[in-house]
């Protein structure tokens, strides 16, 4: 299980870093960032004044104090790193559920942030622990590509053979070039295999559990 890192400038006032364990990168590192759980310092007290301060009222201050040389790792409930500090963590976050570790890869403890809160390491460690959350990965395909993959899966399940491009064209009501470009895109992403020039040669490379429902 890994936690995903984010760039300091995008997250806000406190520093973050890259290290093994809470892993950075990948196409899924955006979901936490898009939720805007951390408070961008410049946006709150910049040119927009009162509007920014009104937005700031939604955030709660969280302070976690540990021994001076202890690394504090704070993540959200989706397993993405929020912030890492040494000794004392002091930040402002949206209300929600978070997890904290005192040293990378150690026991994980829940933080239920509902108001301004301050904890010591001892207080947290005498409370309940929790499993480390699993990072929720984004699928390696777009919504439209997912529908084509689901169609291929169900067509093969019903008919015992892959669909032709003409059959996909009729189902999705698109032009032949559109279907062919979609097939090429799915192949280039490693989602299907096919033999060029041979009809009904598509082979699905994605498990059913990873496919959306066909709409």
What does this structure look like?
With 215 residues, this protein is an alpha+beta fold. It has two domains: 8-125, Immunoglobulin-like (Sandwich), CATH 2.60.40; 143-210, Arc Repressor Mutant, subunit A (Orthogonal Bundle). Helix content is 30%, strand content 21%. A four-stranded antiparallel sheet has the order 3-2-5-6. It has a three-stranded mixed sheet with strand order 4-1-7. Strands 8-9 form a two-stranded antiparallel ribbon. Helix 7 (165-172) packs across helix 8.
Query: Secondary-structure element sequence?
Result: HHHHEEEEEEEHHHHEE
Mean of residue pLDDT? 78
3D shape: elongated
Unreliable stretches covering 5 or more consecutive residues: 1-36, 38-49
For the report, how would you describe the main beta sheet?
A: 4 strands, antiparallel
The number of domains: 2
Q: What name is given to the CATH topology of the largest domain?
A: Immunoglobulin-like
Measure the end-to-end span. 32 Å
CATH architecture of the largest domain: Sandwich
Strand order of the largest sheet: 3-2-5-6
Helix amount: 25-40%
CATH class of the largest domain: Mainly Beta
Give Rg in angstroms: 23 Å
Which structural class do the helices and strands define? alpha+beta
DSSP E strands, number:
9
Total helical segments: 8
């Amino acid at each position: 299980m890994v936690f995903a890192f984010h760039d300091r400038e995008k997250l806000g006032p406190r520093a973050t870093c890259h290290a093994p364990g809470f892993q950075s990168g990948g196409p899924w590192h955006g979901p936490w960032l898009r939720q805007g759980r951390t408070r961008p310092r410049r946006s709150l007290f910049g040119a927009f004044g009162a509007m920014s301060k009104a937005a700031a009222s939604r955030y709660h201050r969280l302070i976690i104090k540990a021994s001076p040389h202890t690394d504090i790792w704070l993540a959200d409930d989706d397993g993405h790193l929020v912030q890492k500090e040494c000794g004392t963590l002091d930040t402002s976050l949206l209300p929600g559920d978070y997890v904290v570790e005192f040293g990378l890869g150690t026991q994980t403890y829940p933080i239920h942030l509902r108001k301004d809160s301050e904890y010591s390491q001892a207080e947290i460690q005498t409370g309940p622990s929790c499993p480390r959350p699993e990072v929720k990965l984004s699928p390696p395909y777009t919504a439209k590509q997912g529908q084509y993959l689901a169609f291929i899966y169900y067509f093969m399940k019903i008919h015992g053979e892959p669909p032709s491009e003409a059959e996909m064209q009729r189902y999705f009501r698109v032009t032949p070039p559109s279907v062919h470009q979609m097939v090429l895109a799915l192949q280039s992403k490693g989602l299907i295999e096919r033999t060029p020039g041979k009809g009904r040669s598509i082979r699905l490379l994605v498990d059913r559990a990873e496919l959306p429902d066909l709409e």
